[in-house]
Amino acid sequence: MPSSIFNLSYSLLTAALVALSISACQPIDDVNNDAISNDSENWSCQSQKMPLAYSVCRIEAQTLSDPRYSLQLFWQQADSSANNNQPLLTFDTLLASLPSNQTLNFAMNAGMYNENYAPIGYTVIEGKELRALNLNEGGGNFHLLPNGVMWWDKCGEVQITESNALNEQLKSGSAQPWYATQSGPMLVINNEIHPQFNPDSTSLKLRNGAGVCSDGSIQFVNSEAPVSFYQFAALFKDELNCPNALFLDGGIASALYAPIIDKQDKKEMGVMIGLTETKN
Q: Strand 128-131 relative to strand 76-79: parallel, antiparallel, unpaired?
């Protein structure tokens, strides 16, 4: 083979290998990408009245590949005077703790907690496991099995996985959560409503949850009026088209921060989940 052809072939092969080696987490830098530059196409919050009264904040499929945006869990703040970490507790404290170049687009409570506002289920923040996966049996909504975990890796690929299934993935190394929050019960499991939910239930409460939907979006819902588990799950399955959805909490623990729709609950809570945006 002539050396010039060999050099050309080698160069093309090298370029192809470099392209393949680029991390899937790294977005393509394209200044003409309107979907990335247009905030309304990255996330949104709105209030709805049908089929029930609820507020929903939606993250579009491509958003978390944009380095400006980050879906995060928040729990504690550094308390240098006491030499320990204290729970943030409120959205106001969370806002005050953010770097000056970060905006909190929306947030809500993210899972159940004990009397000390510590999470009772699996919790991972920035790759650090703060609470182990909870596979115990017990009473209450958390243990209305199956329960599940909302988690995402460094690439920002969000998944909702039944707890025992995630346990197997963790053992095999096929799941590597960068953030994770465990709660229960699951609302929708592989496009089926939780088998223990009763369509005729009269147990109505304020509820909030999250779903990973068929179009790749992630949707966070806060009911504005008391609803049953079945009604809430049907909203995710039939209206929002989310094959997998997870109940986060309810009653006095159900909280939403979404200034774009004038929502800022003044409640105390444990772990929070929120979408931040970094300004240059």
A: unpaired
Rounded-to-integer distance, Cα 64 and Cα 156, Å: 5
255-205-164-234 Cα dihedral, nearest 10 degrees: -100
Rounded CA separation 202/166 (Å): 32
pLDDT tens for each residue of 1-27: 444 443 444 343 333 333 333 345 654
Residue range 178-213, pLDDT digits in tens: 999 999 999 999 999 999 999 999 999 999 999 999
**Phi then psi for 62, rounded to 5 degrees?**
-85, -10
d(CA 97, CA 77): 7
State the Cα–Cα distance between residues 58 and 270, nearest whole angstrom: 22
pTM (2 decimals)? 0.86
User: d(Cα 227, Cα 134) in Å, to the nearest integer?
Assistant: 27
Q: Which residue matches tokens 């944009």? A: 66
Q: Are 65 and 173 in contact (CB under 8 A)?
A: no
- Alpha-carbon distance 158 to 212, whole Å? 7
- What are the backbone angles phi and psi of residue 41, rounded to the nearest 5°? -100, 0
